[in-house]
Amino acid sequence: MNRFFTLFSFSLLALISTRSSQYDGVWASETESLTRFLLESARDAEFLEWLKRVRRRIHEHPELAFEEKLTSQLIRNELDSLGIEYEWPVAETGVVATVGSGAQPWFGLRADMDALPIQELVEWEHKSKINGKMHACGHDAHVTMLIGAAKLLQNNRHKLKGTVKLVFQPGEEGHAGAYFMIKEGSLDGVRSIFGLHVDPSMSIGTIGSKPGPMLAGSGRFSVIIQGKGGHAASPHRSRDPILALSMVILALQHIVSRETDPLESRVVSIGYIRGGEALNVIPETVEFGGTFRFMDSESYSYLKQRIKEVIETQAAVQQCNAVVDFMEDKLRPYPATINHPMMYEHAKRVGENLLGDENVKQSPMTMGAEDFSFYAQKMPAALFWIGARNETTMKSVKGLHSPHFVIDEDVLPVGASLHAAVALSYLDNHAEKIAA
Ligand SMILES: [Zn+2]
Ligand SMILES: [Zn+2]
């Protein structure tokens, strides 16, 4: 807590110094004082305790993609008590709330609601109460930060020069919830959008991102190789699908190492193999599957075509037959997440005002994927990592999707005020341009 308040004290000092001149007038002093007011509200001990209570309730009741009924209900209850109107259901469990005048410009803030099929191994008072399900990607914190932003914005609604749309979406973990939110028209009219994702390796009070490509696109495949089973001592009477699988996996690795420009980022990884049960039997079939990552639609098409060709051809060499399923009807591939330079710059400047220049980092690109990319395809968008690590209390970093994943809850007011400040100042800037 001390560290947290120290950071905010720094931020206040930074804000009090007149920074608007550095930004060519983009940061009007009125916006700065509003931002400062949001921060002061977020510092309030009662506010922090409320955020913790909300997050812990969600953490105890994790729900998987498109099953986020309780989480959605909790969000709506909080919005009701804040007097905020919302659209529901969108894409099964999604909620889109509206704060402000209703008039343009409309600015979007996004949180994802779903948990993962992981058994929590962290022993604490608010451990997941659902066996085999856990908020191991911090989406419980994302929802809480956005509810916190809703309260901050609603308390200052008369100062908003437009409208903020709070987008609570289902199914980020592989199920393209964002795609379905857009498909149902709930983002129509929204001009720009901002999102936060917790990062357990970054300290509380820091954020990071980069302009342009930030995360990869992702596709998946599962394969059945059909051979002819028989006695392992008479391989000539069989068609060995295990040998075919071995050749296939080695050949798949050549698509990136031999067919891809070394300066281009692509990945093909196999995640599972299932086949055979006895030491002396050649099985009838084997199954395997994996994921592929890419940075643009051309690479996606190329990888998809070559993965299919390589698997089918290599299986045929071993007199086996392969069926490749990209599962796109159930698991829609994600495009790469590309941050819009202007939106990135805007959020970066707000972050610098809130947290200090030194606490806004340039993050490296990674080949992870996020369905925030669907919003970024539709409108100027920026996704930022937000630090959730307390070096004093956390001895080591437990990564996203780990059963040991933990966050420091002091991230919650930082995220809530950052969300609110990014939206509020976007509306200020945009309204000024219209007026000009
Ligand atoms: Zn995740
Ligand atoms: Zn996530």
TrEMBL record:
Q: Which InterPro entries does this UniProt record tie to the protein?
A: Amidohydrolase (IPR017439), Bact_exopeptidase_dim_dom (IPR036264), ILR1-like_Hyd (IPR044757), Peptidase_M20 (IPR002933), Peptidase_M20_dimer (IPR011650)
UniProt keyword list: Hydrolase, Manganese, Metal-binding, Signal
Q: Any idea where the Peptidase M20 dimerisation domain is?
A: 217-315
GO CC entries: endoplasmic reticulum
Gene Ontology molecular-function annotations: IAA-Ala conjugate hydrolase activity; metal ion binding
**Coiled-coil region(s):** none
Keyword presence, Manganese? yes
Residues annotated for Mn(2+) 2 binding in this entry: 137, 139, 197, 401
| Cofactor annotation remark | The Mn(2+) ion enhances activity.
Q: Which CDD domains match?
A: M20_IAA_Hyd (cd08017)
Highest taxon of source:
Eukaryota
The record's Gene Ontology biological-process terms are: auxin metabolic process
- Cofactor annotation: Mn(2+)
Q: Which residues form the signal peptide?
A: 1-21
Q: Where does Mn(2+) 1 bind?
A: 173
Q: Does the keyword Nucleotide-binding apply?
A: no
**Pfam families recorded for this chain?**
M20_dimer, Peptidase_M20
PANTHER family per the record?
METALLOPEPTIDASE, PUTATIVE (AFU_ORTHOLOGUE AFUA_6G09600)-RELATED, PEPTIDASE M20 FAMILY MEMBER
The record's similarity note reads: Belongs to the peptidase M20 family.
- The protein in question is named Peptidase M20 dimerisation domain-containing protein
Origin organism is Buddleja alternifolia
Phylogenetic lineage: Eukaryota, Viridiplantae, Streptophyta, Embryophyta, Tracheophyta
